Amino acid sequence: MTDIVFITDIHGKFDTVYEIFNRESPDYVLIGGDVTDLGQTLDGVIPFMEDIPAPTFVIPGNCDNRDIIPVLEASDAILIHRKSIDLGNITISGIGGSNATPFSTPFEHTEEELTAIVKEVAAKTGKNRWNILVTHAPPFGALDEVAPDVHVGAFPIAKIVKEFDIICCGHIHEQKGICELERRICVNPGPAYNGNYAVITLDEEEDEPKIVLKNTRDEVEVTEE
Fold first, then answer.
1. What's one Pfam family the UniProt record gives for this protein (predicted)?
2. Is residue 223 part of a domain?
3. Cβ neighbours of residue 79 under 8 Å, at least 6 residues apart?
4. Which of 36, 116, 122, 189 could link 198 by a cystine bridge, Cβ 3.0 to 4.6 Å?
């Protein structure tokens, strides 16, 4: 059995995120981007990654400056933007940044650029028991509404969801939830700066993953011995 904590949209509120790891002891941590917030100093990124008590895999978000790439590469975390990594029977692939927004944030891709990145990542991803895509932008049609029936997800990402079992996304803060797209599971835990996170449990004996959305304000379950 493997427990994974997925967090996204930290926006520099590192102190809030530390509380997650006072509650959870995962085997791995996935970070879905927006580690910092629109030009915020990068000075705290490496210390933050050093303090996460599990192997950590990270992508940048649209609110991260592109200068964060070498910082993440120098940190204790493993940058998976445009990469795919095998961890035993788990494969984790990453697509950082986002499709275009009305706000011209620092790490956006044109439709053509994102299409090329998506094809690159799909080509690198081999079939495994569990295939997880960590993408900052959600696929079009899943957890991507900014108003009723107004979807802003990425079309290129939607085209490859069938290649994965779980799509971990963020970006749209108001779309905390779990849903299915093309019979694949999509999860947005909500912004970590508000204490939100997801725990994904993969059990070799189970056909489906167990995914629970949590918040640091939730009561901690106490088990009697």
1. Metallophos
2. no
3. 58, 59, 69, 72, 73, 94
4. 189
- Residue 47 in domain: yes
Is residue 51 a part of any domain in this protein? yes
Q: What is the pLDDT of residues 51-107, one digit of tens each?
A: 999 999 999 999 999 999 999 999 999 999 999 999 999 999 999 999 999 999 999
pLDDT digits (tens, 9 = 90+) for 190-207: 999 999 999 999 998 888
pLDDT of residue 39: 78
Q: Can you give the residue range of the structural domain that contains 66?
A: 2-215
CATH number at residue 66: 3.60.21.10
For 142-160, b where at least 16 C-beta lie within 10 A, e where not — what string? bbbbeeeeebbbbebbbbb
Residue 218's Cβ-count burial label (10 Å; 0-12, 13-18, 19+) is: exposed
